[in-house]
Known about the structure:
The complex is a heterodimer of chains A (194) and B (659). In chain A, 56% of the residues lie in helices and 3% in strands. Chain A has 194 residues and is mainly alpha-helical. Chain A has one domain (29-191). In chain A, helix 3 runs antiparallel to helix 8 and helix 4 (116-125) crosses helix 6 (136-147). The radius of gyration of chain A is 18 Å and the shape is globular. Chain B folds into 6 domains: 2-32; 41-48 and 472-545, no CATH class; 60-156, no CATH class; 175-306, Four Helix Bundle (Hemerythrin (Met), subunit A) (Up-down Bundle), CATH 1.20.120; 340-470, no CATH class; 555-657, no CATH class. Chain B has 24 helices and 12 strands. Chain B has helices at 2-30, 53-67, 79-84, 87-95, 100-112, 133-143, 182-206, 212-223, 226-234, 239-247, 252-267, 277-299, 333-338, 348-359, 382-395, 424-428, 461-470, 472-486, 495-511, 513-525, 528-531, 555-564, 607-619, 635-657, and strands spanning 120-121, 124-125, 155-156, 328-329, 413-415, 421-423, 444-445, 456-457, 570-571, 579-580, 585-586, 593-594. In chain B, the strands form 6 sheets. Chain B has a two-stranded antiparallel sheet. The interface between A and B is large, with 56 and 61 residues.
Amino acid sequence: MTSLRRMLGACALAATLWSNAAPADAQSAQFKGIAALSRELSARIAAPDLSVELDWFLPAPGLTELLGAWSAFGSEHTFQNGTPNTLNMVIYHVTLTNFARTLGAWCQAPPLKFDDRFAATLGRLCTWPAAAAKDDATLQAFWLALMGFAAPREEYEAWRTFFLTSSYRDRPGREVVPAMALALTLNPYFLLHR
Amino acid sequence: MRSSRLRFWGLAVLVLGVFAGVLLVGYLSFGVRPMELPGVNERTAQASSTSDPWENRRWLDKAARVLRGGEGLGPDDDVEALLALPREAAVRRLMEDSRFGDTILDFNLFFLGFKFNSVDVDGAYDPKVFDFPNAIASARAMAHDGDYLALFDLEGPFFMPPLRTAPVDDPPLHPEDIGLSAEQLRHKAVGELRSALTRLVAVGSKTQPTHVYDFCSAIMGITLKTDKWHERVMRAFDDWEGLVLSRGSAVDGPLDALSGTSWKECYNRKDGTLPNIVLLREAAATALARFERVAAEIASFEPSQYQPRSVADFRPVDLTVFGSARKWISFGYEQGMALPNSSTNANRRRAAYILKRYFCDDLTPVGVEAPKTHAKGAIGEPGCQTCHYKLDPMAGFFRNYGSNFYDFSRDPYLTFDDLAFADRSRYVSGWQSSPQSKRPWEVGFIRSATEEALNSYGESIADLSAIIRKAPEAKQCLMRRLFEYTVAEDQAIDAAWLDGLTKRFEAEAVENSAQAMRNAIVRIVTSDAFLQRDADPRRCYDGIDPKHAAEAPPCRVAFLLDKSCARCHDKVEAKTGRLDLTKWKTTPDGKVHGFPHLDAQSNPLSARESLARLADRVTSNDPALRMPKGRAMSDRDRQELYRWAQEELTRLDDIGRQP
């Protein structure tokens, strides 16, 4: 047990050193921002003439501008808070967890109205661990509905493999759907502009 | 035991969470890149065109997002049909979508430096968007192959948003307004002045000519309270709407005209006769009619009557109701706040904005050759002239515009945004030319402090609009911003490729600027830079000449060096300053890249020293040192070269600090 603690501590330290050692001129991709993400999601999963707004899921009102936003009044507008940092990642984590839980809650009592095709996909996924939920077509439809084609296929395959082979393999849909959605929406390909 | 195990797993989850968080933030922030970038030299990178259906869909989804106001492919899209088209045709198909108008509007706002998260809020256009009438006029023009370059017009039509539905003040400032909706309050506030003027006209029609002074008194009873009437009407409108009414002199205009006539007839007659009651009746009726027209025009923007669903639905205000056919200046309420004209900056803030936004000149101090006519005063110092030689003449275009871009040209004084006043004629004399000059004003877009023939002079905002329309710099700036908007703001762009993009746009815009803009979008959306996943921001993906050797200078500046410097500095010889700007090679220590560059003793200069000298030479004020010697180089090119050198120097410092 002690050795495991040491190993975990060493990993955390190594990660800190690794990130700090990155060169100053290295690529610094920016968040798309909550507004852009909401538009993307709305186009893919919202019912006609409705939208899905991620700021519904913020832990508190008024945090949108911390998550990458074209803001400011009284001066020229610039994209602010777009560089990932510990604070905005925490807010993203909480927001997307709330969003993912809402998708999980949909398995029991739909709290949101979605596009019919996405609702059908979600309905099948809710039957996890049934075979229909593990079907590649269902998994890919769920992935593409949330992610679009922003991520390479390998990202999808890694995500699918994890849920088909990890302990989630046999858990109920109401637990697996939020985990799937959270893993997917925390993917940098979902969050970042590039 | 159970509690100990729980504590352990709690700790494990915590540490793993920290580990994952740090990794994630590190990955998101820094990505993965080699320290010395071989990509900088790689001018042979090619498109990631692929037969992989997943990648093709990725491109289509990204193109749809860019071209349809942020909305990518959705369940209703016939993806297979779009994929079956050649990419150019697919882009043109996506541009037929009504949401493309929102993309153009959003880009126009980005170009102007006032992009919003979204042009709409809760399903309707954000009223703040209407602050930028040239952005709207240009976006509307795209819908019918009109004049996209209306974006460059600093005055033109004005588009008003639907009037607000929420109360301006809640609770209302005046107790008698409690319980009224926003529309009811507007109706009431406008109706009060309308009723007063209607009563006045009735009084005039009943007044006998022998009692004309009673009518004079009645008129003055209203016109002496113009400020009060202004305030009464404005209480029903928010700041944005109020600016429109103020700028259009909706209240003051009719009442001031009436006041002028009554003052002349009633109190300033030289011949001792009675005031002409017919003229006074006409003046009262005219004031009423003019206010009625304004009120009717404003009322036509009530949300119950006007709710645009697309950019094409935006309706211009009939500016003739404001008493003249003046064009509307394209700076609204927010720009009035963001670009104040204070008594100390004397419109230079606005000048800097125009240079930055329309000419992509952010006033990076790159030195200037001493002008033939020396500037006087504190800003005559060479260090100040680096910017002021072009800033002050640009500010002159706005010399009659004071607080909130209000045009004071017909007033004896000018009010600044810091609430100071100035005698207008004295204030504007700061831009008057010397008696020897051929021009009345030292106002213009200045390209050179020494060669007047290169500059574009003018006097008015209309002249400035014409200069922007004509200037190749503005079109290149437009193309640069379009690339930044479509690909990424910090993505390197090969200057030669940008030059080519601009030239094609310029040539096509002569015939049809909307079509030229669509063609430019097609070129960028089908470019290699747009296709890239995880693009390296320092690498140029387009315009790469495969003939270039691996040792060619970095793509960002290769074209600039080739155009302005490499004619002389192409070998390491004494007559070329021992500098070869056609190559970018690994330094002898193998750690970094630099230009082959020797000192006077033929010893190799370090990459750092070489770049520092280059930066110094391109920004020197001394004609003997300033490069390129005896040749013109635009400020934009000079700034780009200087900024690149500075970034390289910073990078070298970072590399030097690494163990």
